[in-house]
Recover the amino acids of this structure.
């Protein structure tokens, strides 16, 4: 045991002595190398440059060299200042392949002693590297001579420049290819790597930190990764057999998000393939990493929650298409997706993007596509299902897809971004093929084909307070056109059967709703017109909403209120308070704030009534203009039906007989359908036959004043023609001859519903009964013979009418 301990001590002493000798030798060698470099700067610099210039079609130069001995102890290092690397055609293109303020070179001490410079490490600081290819395909990288494969096999391994370590700090790297319109521009903060040189090529582990100024595969379409930072560690290897650099998939931070990136770069063909995988990243952040020609189209869509993405970028090096081949897949689960027409909630799909949709076709925007596979979502609470939804041709992106859905209409409540509708019952079943121009959505609107079936609907249209029950209809879309078939609605006691067609609906819906023309056909067994009075009133104010819902509700409300409508209406029986009409045939137009009666004919009060005109909606009330023709209607029933036209002087109780007339009048009508007093203006030309004035107060008062022995409470008139001009509360009676059973008289003047009555009457005292046996011409001559009373009806102090002599009569 003691001998063993003594033996160990002896070997330890020997080892320490050997180690001491080695340390001393290393120090002496290092000092010798340092002394040699200090005494032979020019020779060492020349030797280094000679080593670096081997196999170059150009020259690397340096203005000076300084030893930096302690930087790589026990190795020896020097700093080359003012370094320039230029190819042989520099005078033509003027782009330095390398321009550096200083390059630190670490040398192998033993190789230095024997006179052969072996560079172990290169550190490039404050430099710019500009790899330039002109429009003819010439590159300044031709400075590096390439050997044939036979030369490579025969060349000794030691003859190649093998740098064990690289260290780039504050280096600008630009790869500018004018021929293929590529520009890669990096501000490298740091690149550090260790290199090994097996027989197969080389391997390296490289730590990278850089900013991307440009990563443009096609400068005409913009840069990928614009202004993003890259940070991570790459495991790279070079294969001599493949003449390719291979980057194993590793985590690389782009911006603040980790990406798993791998690549293969084939040097002889300038080809590459890049694989990318990233999880839990926002769609917008990914889109902004792509070139503007792609991102601008992708940003037409939005995805709120993070997604997973897998992608590949491949360039075969041929330069045939300019763009690399891009394929991207995304996975979306329980997300919110924004599209130009609104939002899809609870959205699930598998998506893909490629810029070569047709295999073997060109690579680029024209052959690109975005696809959504197995898409399920809710659109305003309506569940949607789309097997495949495609956006083709990013140069002018067209979206297409078949949309199917079945849902209760109540799902739409509080989801359209408007309070215009309240759906209480009913179901919807839709199957629509949609095609939309995404890029020009504001100008070229979606094309839709298919059908929507609505059954057993109970709908309240709030702005007009219209409640429709037992409603059903089939809505058919034929590309841009829309039609409604088998429509049935019930509004109160009114029933309507509806069909309609709207040309160019899909385009005008968004761009010009005021140009939409609805051709509507309606028929009804019975119609209670009072139930449609909400159309006369102003729209009820509705609660505002935000975001996409507000946009959709605004568009829908604009269409409903601004679109034009032509209505052909046939009704067996139409009822409005006291008004009863049969066989109603109407041609009506709704435009903006107006209802236009193009032509209406109806059987009423034993005769026929036809009219045209309009009602214009206003804030306080509505104004109307009516041109009507009345043919042989019962005047008593006619006045009763129209509520005595807003006055109570001559009412249906005062009238008998039959009326024919032409009336051109205007006035005001309330939102509840009542004619406003003193609002009517116009002209009425009338004829009455077999008529009678019954208990007409002004005439009765005349009788009391002058004809006490005659019955003026029931004055029969066989025929009467007259013209009335209505001005508000005053009726101007044009000179008119009245021949009746009780007396004959001439009348003219102003009859006022308020103050201002001034009616002149010329009344002969002779009794018409005595002229019954005279001929018509004899009656005209005898009519005003004898005593004629000239009287005047004017206002009295109590607001009534008094009769007095007309002293102003000529």
């Amino acid at each position: 045991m003691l001998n063993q301990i003594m033996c160990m001590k002896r070997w330890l002493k020997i080892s320490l002595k050997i180690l001491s000798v080695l340390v001393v030798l290393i120090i002496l060698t290092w000092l010798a190398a340092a002394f040699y470099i200090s005494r032979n700067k020019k020779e060492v610099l020349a030797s280094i440059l000679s080593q670096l210039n081997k196999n170059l079609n150009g020259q690397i130069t340096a203005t000076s060299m300084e030893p930096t001995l302690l930087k790589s102890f026990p190795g020896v290092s020097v700093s080359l200042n003012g370094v320039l690397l230029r190819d042989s055609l520099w005078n033509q293109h003027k782009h330095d392949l390398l321009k550096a303020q200083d390059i630190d070179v670490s040398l192998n001490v033993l190789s230095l002693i024997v006179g052969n410079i072996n560079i172990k490490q290169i550190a490039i600081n404050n430099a710019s590297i500009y790899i330039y290819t002109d429009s003819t395909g010439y590159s300044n990288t031709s400075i590096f001579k390439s050997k044939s494969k036979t030369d490579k096999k025969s060349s000794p391994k030691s003859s190649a420049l093998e740098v064990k370590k690289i260290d780039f700090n504050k280096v600008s790297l630009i790869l500018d290819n004018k021929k293929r319109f590529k520009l890669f521009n990096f501000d490298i903060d740091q690149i550090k790597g260790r290199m090994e040189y097996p027989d197969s090529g080389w391997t390296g582990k490289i730590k990278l930190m850089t900013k991307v100024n440009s990563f443009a595969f096609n400068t005409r379409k913009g840069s990928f990764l614009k202004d993003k930072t890259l940070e991570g560690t790459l495991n790279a290897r070079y294969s001599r057999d493949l003449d390719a650099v291979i980057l194993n998939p590793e985590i690389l931070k782009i911006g603040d998000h980790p990406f798993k990136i791998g690549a293969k770069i084939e040097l002889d063909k300038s080809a590459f393939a890049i694989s990318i995988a990233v999880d839990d990243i926002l769609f917008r952040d990914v889109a902004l990493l792509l070139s503007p020609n792609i991102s601008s189209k992708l940003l037409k869509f939005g995805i709120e929650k993070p997604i997973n993405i897998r992608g590949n970028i491949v360039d075969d090096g041929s330069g045939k298409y300019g763009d690399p081949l891009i394929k991207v897949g995304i996975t979306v689960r329980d997300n919110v997706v924004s599209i130009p027409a609104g939002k899809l909630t609870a959205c699930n799909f598998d998506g893909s993007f490629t810029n070569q949709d047709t295999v073997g076709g060109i690579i680029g925007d024209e052959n690109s596509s975005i696809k959504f596979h197995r898409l399920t979502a809710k659109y305003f609470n309506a569940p949607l299902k789309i097997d495949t939804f495609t956006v083709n041709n990013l140069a002018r992106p067209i979206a297409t897809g078949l949309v199917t859905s079945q849902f209760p209409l109540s799902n739409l409540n509080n989801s359209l971004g408007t309070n215009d509708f309240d759906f209480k019952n009913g179901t919807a079943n839709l199957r629509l093929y949609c095609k939309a121009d995404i890029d020009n959505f504001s100008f070229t609107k979606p094309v839709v084909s298919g059908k929507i079936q609505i059954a057993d609907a109970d709908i309240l249209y709030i702005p007009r307070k219209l409640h429709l029950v037992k409603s059903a209809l089939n809505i058919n879309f034929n590309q841009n056109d829309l039609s409604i078939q088998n429509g049935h609605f019930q509004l109160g006691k009114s029933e309507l059967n509806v069909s309609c067609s709207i040309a160019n609906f899909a385009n005008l819906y968004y761009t010009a709703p005021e140009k939409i023309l609805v051709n509507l056909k309606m028929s009804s067994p019975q119609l209670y017109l009072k139930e449609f009075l909400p159309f006369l009133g102003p729209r009820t104010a509705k609660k505002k909403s935000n975001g996409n819902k507000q946009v959709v509700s605004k568009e829908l409300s604009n269409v409903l209120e601004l679109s034009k409508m032509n209505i052909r209406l046939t009704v067996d029986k139409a009822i409005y308070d006291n008004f009863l009409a049969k066989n109603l045939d109407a041609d009506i137009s709704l435009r903006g704030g107006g209802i236009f009666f193009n032509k209406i004919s109806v059987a009423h009060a034993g005769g026929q009534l036809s009219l045209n005109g309009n009602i214009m909606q206003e804030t306080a009330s509505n104004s109307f203009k009516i041109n009507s023709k009345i043919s042989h209607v019962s005047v008593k029933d006619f006045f009763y039906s129209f509520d005595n036209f807003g006055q109570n002087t001559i009412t249906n109780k005062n009238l008998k007989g039959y009326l024919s007339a032409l009336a051109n009048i205007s006035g005001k009508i309330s939102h509840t359908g009542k004619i406003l007093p003193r609002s009517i203006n116009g002209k009425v030309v009338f004829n009455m036959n077999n008529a009678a004035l019954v208990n007409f107060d002004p005439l009765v008062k005349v009788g009391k004043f002058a004809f006490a022995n005659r019955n003026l409470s029931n004055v029969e008139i066989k025929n009467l023609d007259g013209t009335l001009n209505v001005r508000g509360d005053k009726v101007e009676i044009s000179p008119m001859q009245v021949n009746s059973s009780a007396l004959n008289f001439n009348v003219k003047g102003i009859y006022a519903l308020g103050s201002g009555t001034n009616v002149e009457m010329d009344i002969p005292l002779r009794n018409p009964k005595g002229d019954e046996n005279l001929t018509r011409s004899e009656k005209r001559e005898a009519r005003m013979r004898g005593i004629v009373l000239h009287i005047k009806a004017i206002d009295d102090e109590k607001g009534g009418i008094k009769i007095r002599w007309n002293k102003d009569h000529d």
Notes: Residues 146-160, 543-553 have pLDDT under 50 and may be disordered.
